[in-house]
Amino acid sequence: MSDFLSNFNSDNYDRRKEEKEPREPDKKITHESKQPTLSAEESLESQTKRKMRSQQEATELELSYQKQKKRKRRMILFAVVAACVLLGIVYYQQTHVKVPNFVGKNLTDVQVWASENKVKPKIKQTYDRGKDANTILAQEQKAGSRVKKGGVLNVTNSLGADPEEKIPLPDFMKMKKTQAERWIKENKAENLSLIEEYSDTIEKGQPLRSEIANAEVTPENYRRKDAAKVYYSKGPQTYQKDIKVPDFQRKPRSEVETWAKNNEIDLTYEEKTSNEIPADNIIDQSIAKDEKIAKKDKMSVTVSLGKGYVVPNFSEYSLEDASTALEGVQVQAKGVYTDNLPYGQLISQSVEAGRVLSAKDDLTIKVLYSLGQPYMKDLRGTMVEGGLQKYFHDEFQSKGANINYVIRHVDSDQPKGTVVGMSHFSDYVPLNLTVSIDISLGNLGSAPTSFPNNNNGGDNGENQETPSE
Question: Which of 196, 182, 187 is nearest to 230 (CA)?
Fold first, then answer.
């Protein structure tokens, strides 16, 4: 357009004007011209017409130039306006961003978009059981609209179901795992965990037990925020047989225990005495060396208790020999009185014959032999009152006979305190008996040569009996 308008400057205008005006050919007056010579009036008229025509053409050219000049101005103005509009559009595009539809999307999507586009997210939180946590429920700016960079994007975010809401628990012990999962999903009970455990007795998917972390919470007042666990069976656990069994014979028990613990072997122990294998060492094992077993497999080993002591039948030994009958074992042999067993016969032994004792057992055996029926000696003239207590204890009471005595102080010519009379003497007596004993007061002078028996003793009825302690 500038090239076109340049054709209308002053120099070009005059030049173009001259080009349009017709040139009159030079008039040569020759004698050969056949045209008649014009009169002065005709020549003036002709010049006037030519001048008018030239003026008209100049006027038309001037009008055309003016129109082109106005057109140029309009085009320039239009270009400027268009440029301004374009610049405004570009500026708006650069300073505003188009808002996507965030409803139903995750809160993270809003935060990432806002960070990338320099927009500040303003988030309103609310509980909504129908939407998962961190799900956008609504947005103030409509999808497709534009928001200025540095501006605010208002959205409403779901916090999920209300944790304070009460949701009474069902009886999970009557529900399979799939049913429990459905219940948790429907009630948004995200703090209730389903845990699977291996079980050799309960079928896979069946309940094992349930636990609520807070002891004050019951299934009836359970709230969504309360922590709880329900355990379900995974069925029996199976393992590959890839554990090689070592040779444990004569190895310490501690070595076997460590191996079993590290490999999760179900190890049981049997104990047995051995005169060859030291105590706490392995005698035998149920699975041979180099065989392979799996975790949780059962295995047993026999552990030495050390030297064994076979308890003899003490009826084959006398009371005197019983204490040395078994080397390494303390035998406490004792004789007791009996009513119907002869002297020396075995009454009992605390450990049965044939049993094998080890260092783990109480290595003390109590053996009782019969002393027969108790015999009461004649203590008259040979025993004083002070010796009666020890005599009756050592001779009878310590040997199983419940024989006691009572004392009567009597007038006598024997030394004071001497036994001068007995209700029973020089005879066998029963196991339960109380013997009356007369003790001399020493108040009758010289002693006779013999002692009367208890029936003829000098009891005048005024003497007092004193029982033994």
Answer: 196
